[in-house]
Every structure is written in C-alpha cells, then in structure tokens.
Design a protein that fits this description.
- The protein is 48% helix and 15% strand.
- By secondary structure, the protein is an alpha/beta fold.
- A 5-stranded parallel beta sheet has the order 2-6-1-7-8.
- Helix 7 packs across helix 8.
- The two termini are 29 Å apart.
- 38% of the residues are buried.
- The structure holds cytidine-5'-monophosphate.
- The site of cytidine-5'-monophosphate has 14 residues, from helix 2, helix 4 and helix 8.
- Cytidine-5'-monophosphate binds next to helix 2, helix 4 and helix 8.
Length: 227
Amino acid sequence: MSTSNVPVIAIDGPSASGKGTVAARVAQALGFHYLDSGALYRALAHAASQAGIALDDEPGLVALAQRLDLRFEAGEIYLAGAPSGDAIRSEEAGRAASRIATLPAVRQALLERQRAFRQPPGLVTDGRDMGTVVFPDAQLKVYLVAGVEERARRRYNQLIEKGIDANLEQILQDLRERDARDANRAVAPLQRATDAKLLDTTDMSIEDAVQTVLRWFGEASPHEPRR
Ligand code: C5P
C-alpha cells in the first residue's frame, strides 16, 4: 500500500539546533510517529566501530547498514536487541556519524529504512536532508536554526545534565567543524529546501518553537484539527 498520502513534517537544521526536541514534542502533540534520522547515522557509526569496520570503508559500511538490527522504541534505540543508551549520544559518536554521512552509498543504504517510518497517522522527522532528499513531498518543511554559540551552550547543558563530561570551547569548535562538513559535502548537504519555513530559535523557548510548528502544520493541512 502506498504511504505517500501519509502526512510528514520534515524538520532540518544544523547540529544542536534543538530540532530533535522540537520534532519529538510535535510528534507527541499530534500522536504521530517520530524518526530521529541522525540516530541512524550515529547507530551505524557505533556499530561499525564495534565490528572493527573503518569509517571510510564504504562497502563494509553499506553491508553493515543492510544487516543492522536496529529498533526504535519509546525514545530508546536498540542495537542487536540491546539499548544503545548514551553510547550513540556522545560528541565522538556525532563526529563519527558525520564522517560516514559523507559517503553516498551509505546514505543510499539508509534511505529506504527512513522512508519506512512513514506510517499512519503521520510522521515527524528531523535531520539534515529530510525535506530535500528523503521526504521531498512532506506536507510541512521547517528549517530550524540557532546561532552557533547558543547551540554550543545547549549541547553543553544537555551533556552536563546527563552527567557526561563536557568542555564548552571544545563543543563550539566541534560544532563549527560539523556545520562545515554537513554543509559542504557533495551528497545531500545541509541546506534549506526552497519550500521550507525558516524557524530561528536563538531567542525562542522550545515550547514557542513547538507551538509555531503546530500552527504552521494546521495552516498547511486545513483538514487537520487546529491545536
Ligand atoms: O542530528 P545528529 O547530530 O544526531 O546527526 C549526527 C550526524 O549525522 C550529523 O552531523 C550529520 O552529518 C549526519 N546526518 C545526516 N543526515 C541526516 C541526519 C544526520 O547526514 N538526515
């Protein structure tokens, strides 16, 4: 059965812009499924390092992506049946993810997996190319940004809250490098889709960002009940 009429809200933007938190809350408010596409890249990079596959071994990574036993359940990601916990949330995992994400065959191998999340009653997803490549026909596309220093502060607070050691200067430098790599890669670079709405959350609370996306979705789909 085709799922192309199942509504999708695609939220793209740079690292640590808050798009994951906003996307998850919008999904909850609407009762939609949620896909954190960055977690797929993180999980694959983590599984590769555990399996001794180099981060530039494209065929090895593709084969791993095809057999990877990955399940999303209640906000947790299970790798081969075991919760991945914080292993894929570290800055190191993010860096590794952004390296394998430059490889075209790896992106291709993860494409169908991502599209399979489009199930009734709807999907909210976040990443770098959700609106440009994975779901170009999404009902609503949002490009969510925040200043790099504000993003570094948010990432720092997030890590400290989880009891993970963090250094603000290091995070700022990593974010700048990751932004450059994500924006300059040849395949599916981070860029605003021409039909994406811009949401700058530098001086905005998460709650206000969530309400803005819900309002835009209500306007984009007049048959959905307004919230
Ligand atoms: O969003 P998150 O920081 O978890 O993503 C980790 C890395 O995975 C990003 O830096 C990016 O390089 C890559 N990624 C991607 N395309 C996506 C989601 C994430 O290339 N749709």
